[in-house]
Specification:
Elements: E1 12-13, H1 29-41, E2 46-48, E3 58-59, E4 65-66, E5 78-79, H2 84-91, H3 102-115, E6 123-125, H4 129-132, H5 145-148, H6 150-170, H7 177-192, H8 204-215, E7 221-223, E8 230-236, E9 241-243, H9 245-251, E10 258-263, H10 264-274, E11 277-280, E12 286-289, H11 295-316, E13 323-325
Parallel strand pairs: 3-5, 6-7, 8-10, 8-13
Antiparallel strand pairs: 1-13, 2-9, 4-7, 11-12
Helix pairs in contact: 2-3, 2-11, 3-8, 6-7, 6-11, 10-11
């Protein structure tokens, strides 16, 4: 170990931090039996990432990744929906946009990130139209829970932001009262805008994914259509490290011990990267400009990302999901 290498502490369960969500994903019996083994092996499943791959662009989803041929992009930091986490933070940080919907906001921010040398991504199931250009398909979902259930997640944030923040506090993540109120009100406002959030049947964020795919073929991380089998939530605090899903599978001889993984350190870097300035162009479409942001604005963006990620977990996980801080 070099003198500059970080000292990795043993991953630990957080007392009273078992997530009791409203979804269906929860550990199976064989997974519960192997959770202690997962804790001892977890550090071996993390890999080092380098600049510019230091902001979230891969989803927290624990399923196996399938890449396009020739895609050599390394695994990068993870958060709910990948780049979508950054868009939602901007959306919930008290700014009044004139974009037509969240999909437009997402596309503008993601395009701006690409223009400034940052990676962009998320995940999408293997939809043939992504390769063939066929838009005449009936399945408009992405297969990403965060993308396809924005209305549920925003409802949770509008009604239970305080509860979500309290759970984050149990995990040693402090959320200010002002941010809780800001996010709760913003989420409620967006729910009132009937056309703002995409619905599972309108393809809003999937169309954004297709547009980004045309801009940058490595902007998407495609996953197989295998069912969810996550057995824990990992909150990763060690900078420049992220989960290696393939390594995790190999450690357990392909028996699935998948995990939801949130790279907390990367959320803070993302908050500073995206800044806080937005303006509208002549066509009344939102244009998000990346800029250096003030300390207070960056902290708000970071805390909004944390609330959104925990709300997304609360919406998809069932009762008894273990939470581990690394």
């Amino acid at each position: 170990m070099k003198e500059t290498d970080p000292v990795i502490e043993t991953p630990r369960y957080i007392e009273n931090a078992t997530l009791d969500g409203i979804g269906y994903i929860a550990p199976r019996e064989y997974q519960r039996q192997r959770l202690p083994e997962l804790l001892t092996k977890l550090d071996q499943a993390y890999t080092t990432v380098q600049a510019p791959y230091l902001i979230p662009y891969m989803c927290m989803d624990g399923r196996r990744i399938e890449r396009e041929p020739g895609d050599t992009r390394p695994d990068g930091p993870t958060a709910a929906g990948g780049t979508l986490t950054l868009t939602v933070a901007r959306d919930l940080s008290g700014y009044d946009y004139v974009a037509s919907d969240l999909a437009s906001l997402h596309y503008e921010l993601a395009s701006d990130l690409l223009d400034n040398g940052y990676p962009v991504g998320g995940h999408c199931k293997n939809i043939p139209s992504l390769r063939t250009g066929d838009r005449n398909v009936t399945d408009h979902s992405t297969g990403c829970w965060a993308n396809d259930n924005m209305d549920i997640i925003y409802r949770i944030l509008s009604e239970r932001a305080t509860d979500i923040a309290q759970f984050a506090g149990v995990c040693d993540i402090a959320i200010s009262r002002s941010t809780i109120d800001m996010v709760s009100q913003a989420a409620a406002d967006r729910l009132e805008r009937k056309q703002w959030l995409p619905q599972p049947d309108d393809g809003g964020l999937r169309l954004v994914a297709e547009e980004l795919d045309e801009v940058d073929r490595t902007a998407l991380v495609e996953l197989t259509s295998e069912p969810h089998a996550e057995c824990a939530v990992i909150i990763n605090t060690h900078e420049h490290t992220t989960i290696d899903r393939s390594a995790l599978r190999q450690m357990f001889d392909e028996q699935r011990m998948d995990v939801f993984s949130i790279d907390l350190w990367a959320l803070r870097k993302a908050a500073y990267a995206i800044g806080a300035s937005c303006e509208a162009d002549s066509d009344a479409q939102v244009v998000c400009r990346i800029s250096e942001s003030s300390e207070a604005a960056s902290e708000e963006l970071y805390e909004a990302m944390v609330l959104y990620n925990f709300a997304a977990l609360f919406s998809c996980c069932g009762r008894g999901m273990p939470v581990v801080v690394r």
